[in-house]
Amino acid sequence: MEFNEFFVQGMALLGAGIAMVAGFGQGIGQGFAAGKGAESVARNPEAASKIQSIMVLGIALAETTGIYSLVIAILLIFIKG
Amino acid sequence: MTEISALEIHLGSFTLEIQQSICVWLCLCVIFAIFFIFAGKKIEQADPSQASKGIVYVCEEAMNLVLFVVHTNLRETTKKYIPLFGTLILMMLASNLIGLVGLQNPTSNVSFNATLAITMWLMIQGNAIRKGGLFARMKELTEPMVLLTPLNIIGELALPISLTMRLFGNILAGSIITMLVYTLIKAILPWGVLGFAFTPFLHMYFDIFSGVIQTYIFFTLSSFFLGQQVAEEE
């Protein structure tokens, strides 16, 4: 099999697509955090604003793994694609 | 990505291309320097017994914003570190929000983020060494057992990389998505009226929400790790 330029390009784009599968875990994590936040607001409605700020912070931290895969996908597309 | 305007300097046969994000960064530095010198003079002349107004009031509110981010982590050492954190927080906030006027964010260039993250990391490590000496710091890395030393070192090195990539990925993804939507609107409607209907939401989410939240997280994390080294235990 010949490894020419187009093969490398196609594989890089395919790799960018596969890298974005990491969004799966990120989605589960963020949904879990938001669900727990809603649960705790239902239990203690007075602390809603405090819970909300902590929840947003946690969600944005959980976003990190998805962002890593996004960076890798963007690098693959713009460098090899 | 290539149609974003850049500054090109020709020196004989040598061409230096400065990206727009770097130009915006340098301009922001100049504006911030002028602003802070001017504000400092105003604050020295201000009367403490009167209610503050004008530029002094703006500076007070900015100070409160910075205290809101760092005070819970740095506690009693806040006053010592507030010049650094204040400058960097306001700088990063302005860099994230400047996408609203159509310029390229300096934070969508990895060099800006890496500069800030490495500054923070060197400061954390420097304070950790100053606290108990170099030997105590190295001993700390071998705990709880000697076999875990490589993992501890990787954990320390992961901090600047994760700080850099989190901010960079968020802002870059936002600017790319916004630019794609603008290009699409330009392709289907030459006069671009639909841009008024669709793009404000994108700017609201990616520039304002994402930018402010990422600034908060960046400095909450870095001040948390710094506070572990410098602040007393509660």
From TrEMBL, chain A:
Membrane topology per record: Multi-pass membrane protein
Keyword annotations: ATP synthesis, Cell membrane, CF(0), Hydrogen ion transport, Ion transport, Lipid-binding, Membrane, Transmembrane, Transmembrane helix, Transport
Transmembrane segments: 6-33, 54-79
Database matches in InterPro entries: ATP_synth_csu_bac/chlpt, ATP_synth_F0_csu, ATP_synth_F0_csu_DDCD_BS, ATPase_proteolipid_c-like_dom, F/V-ATP_Csub_sf
Gene Ontology MF: a single term: lipid binding
Pfam families: ATP-synt_C
GO CC terms: plasma membrane; proton-transporting ATP synthase complex; proton-transporting two-sector ATPase complex, proton-transporting domain
Subcellular location: Cell membrane
Main localization, broad class: membrane
Ion transport as UniProt keyword: yes
Residues annotated as domain V-ATPase proteolipid subunit C-like: 14-76
HAMAP family membership: ATP_synth_c_bact
Role description: Key component of the F(0) channel; it plays a direct role in translocation across the membrane. A homomeric c-ring of between 10-14 subunits forms the central stalk rotor element with the F(1) delta and epsilon subunits.
Family of the protein in this entry: Belongs to the ATPase C chain family.
NCBIfam families: ATP_synt_c
Name of this chain's protein: ATP synthase subunit c
Source organism of the structure: Faecalicoccus acidiformans
Upper classification of the organism: Bacteria, Bacillati, Bacillota, Erysipelotrichia, Erysipelotrichales
